[in-house]
Write a structure and sequence with these properties.
This protein has 141 residues and is an alpha+beta fold. It is built from four helices and five strands; from the N terminus they run E-H-E-E-H-E-E-H-H.
Length: 141
């Protein structure tokens, strides 16, 4: 079982639970030593290491191997999985986070807007991206 720190589209239960196919336990969390950025020409964010920075998000708790594989497939090759420690109301939690690996030239110089994603993209992700991702994942595996 593994914990995953999420900070973008996976903050929304409709997406994380839709991908994993089950109800997930989560807790509000803060990741220190990283910063979140909007990506150029994308509606999802990235995090990179940055001193004296922090990212607010959630930690998805006790995910099984299949859920980890599904989330990794969803995130794609531009992200790498990094071990992190996140702060929650119940203490420090060991987790992994999907960290941007594709280069800083793709980053905007501002933070991703969760509210904008919710109003402009969430329904499309819930209704189109999540089912298509699950179908493609299971077709390949």
């Amino acid at each position: 079982m593994m914990n995953v720190f999420v900070y973008g589209s996976l903050l929304f239960p409709e997406i994380a639970e839709g991908l994993c196919g089950k109800k997930l336990k989560s807790e509000e969390a803060t990741l220190r030593g990283y910063s979140r950025f909007a990506l150029k020409e994308a509606d999802y964010p990235a995090i990179i290491k940055k001193n004296n920075a922090k990212v607010k998000g959630k930690v998805l708790l006790n995910l099984d191997e299949n859920a980890i594989y599904l989330l990794t497939f969803y995130e794609g090759d531009d992200y790498g999985m990094a071990p992190v420690k996140v702060e929650t109301n119940s203490g420090i939690v060991n987790a992994v986070a999907f960290v941007w690996m594709a280069g800083n030239e793709f980053l905007e110089d501002f933070d991703w807007d969760e509210g904008q994603f919710e109003s402009e993209s969430l329904a499309f992700y819930r209704d189109e991206i999540v089912p298509a991702t699950r179908a493609e994942y299971y077709r390949r595996n």
